[in-house]
Please model this.
Amino acid sequence: PGNYPPVPCYLLLNDGNGHFQDVSIASEIARYPAKALGVLSIDIEGDGDFDLYVANDGEANFLLVNRWKEEGRLRFDEEALIAGCAYGEGAKAEAGMGVEAADLDGDGDEEILVTNLEAQSNSCYRNDGGGMFMETSFSNGIAPPGLPLIAFGIRVLDANLDGHLDIFIANGHINDRVAYFRGGVSSFAQPDHLFLGDGKRFQLAPYSSPVETETVARSLVSGDIDNDGDLDLLITNWNRTPRLLRSTMSGKAPVLGLMLEGSPPASNIDAIGARITVRAGNRTQVREHRIQSSYFSSHDPRQLFTLPMGATSALVTIRWPDGSDDEFQLEPGSYHHLIHGKGLTSSTAFK
Model:
């Protein structure tokens, strides 16, 4: 990244009729030249408008805070440094590539995760509320195993359906002759990592039967390809066909599926930015609805929530992008189609 200059990012505004307007300058996005590789929409302030987190390659990351609600116009301020999520471990700029957000500690706000280059820890910025973050990748266990590797795609999911969120990271070097240059210490193809969580820390764990050869992974996409109520993973690889990891956890726990649909102009058609709260037994899960994350990836728009063992229903609250709320009492075992302004329109049982 040191061989090329940063350039401004673009923000293109959809007019709803199939056309886009470049508002990069008017929104002041263009004020911040970047070496951007990953971008994530996240409502940092909880005020109902879209903020943006940008992972930069070799430069400080951006937290672009949307001032729409305060000023009545689309304008962004860059606040990553003051918020504590600009730099990695040791307050150093890192080679940010993939980016993800999820409520890892169950406190109702979302952490931000960024994948980085070798000898840099993959970052986990714990959300301490009020728009402030703390880097916790070493204390929560995800940093040490990734230090020899180059990470790209990242996805948070409940891989083993125990109610705790887990992290999958796709790895692969960028130099196809690195093994020659380093005498075999590093390799172009690298193992991917699954970290299982217990609500506080993460531990590296096997995720499949052994594969014949490691791959040079890039994008990581999640989706329930067989509609059985668990998330499968698709990994794109350098100069090879993608690899599909199909989950075999279906039926091991009660799982609730949601398919959200917005109603323009009150909310965008995909309901991106809706806040989902699922309560069942002693477990409350909060998630911001988004489709884009990881590295150059867009995911299955359906959401899956693992309920406590024995749970027969859950109270689901949707705060739609326009700020209105709906509540539903829903049973596990199906994808429930919820449309803003129309409510529950259908339920499709898992296969």
